[in-house]
Amino acid sequence: MKISQLFDVTGRRTLITGAASGIGRGIAEAMAANGARLTLIDQDGEALAAVAELLRQDGATVRTTVADVTDSVALRTAIDAMIAAEGGIDVVFANAGVSAGPGFLTGDGQRNPSASLENLSFDTFERAVAVNLGGTLRTIQLVTPALKRNPGGRIIVTTTVALHKTETMVSTLYVISKAAQGQLVRQAALELAAHNIQVNGIAPGPVITNIGGGRLQDPAARAPFERFIPMHRLATPQDLQGAALFLASPASSYVTGIQITVDGGGSLGTAD
Fold it and tell me: Per the database entry, which stretches of residues form a coiled coil (predicted)?
């Protein structure tokens, strides 16, 4: 099969949560550039409208809905509207997520008392779990009936390398709120395989986005991460586009229940 066929996502009706910036926006750009029909969801209506307008200027078919993935009613309304407008769903990127602050070590290896176990905030924890885990589960639940009616669908979850490793400079609350996503991907993949629905994850290391207030856009904040990553740079959303296209296309037709790690070798350990 030619590459043009193998990675073809032309006309695929694609839902992306957390699409107004960062990884979600990068996925939207890649899918739009390759002919997918997009429905973008985000709670930031202004940023969402700006992204959609840029994509439309390049000829993409884009619908938008402002919704928070923790709001079951709003999310169901958005998904139902997509199904009504598009006649179904082919690809779902459950991408929306939030940070939970820094880790128990600072960039220079010193202890960060405010992020130690005994000082972790349960309000922050509950928000992280509600968005990172609850939002993903809610998205999967709400799209599954439509995908069962249209066999061959894909669900792709933005997870994290923290599924496979511990973290020192990333909050314990973030790690544990995201870790369950890995098992959710596996469980959903196992259950939905009989319906020819594939469920996979993209597990990035640190990515330069707006998450956490855009902390990693600051070179000084990036430096400690860059020092420990073997490739000595952080990812950009564009670095995840290849994995997204692979999992959304015929190229991954026999792949389900896995995580594609995109971390510059960070999960391998430090090098030079």
Answer: none
Q: Tell me: the pLDDT tens digits for 3-15?
A: 999 999 999 999 9
pTM confidence score: 0.95
Pick the CATH number of 3-262 from 3.40.1440.10, 3.40.30.10, 3.30.420.40, 3.40.50.720: 3.40.50.720
CA dist 30 and 265 (Å) reads 23
Q: What is the pLDDT of residues 164-200, one digit of tens each?
A: 889 999 999 999 999 899 999 999 999 999 999 999 9
How far is residue 110 from each of residues 100, 104, 226, 269, measured CA to CA in Å?
A: 19, 8, 17, 19
CA gyration radius, the chain: 18
Dihedral (Cα; 12, 13, 18, 22), 10-degree rounding: 30
Token duo for residue 198: 């594939």
Burial of 220 (0-12, 13-18, 19+ CB in 10 A): exposed
How far does the chain reach from its first CA to its final CA, in angstroms? 40
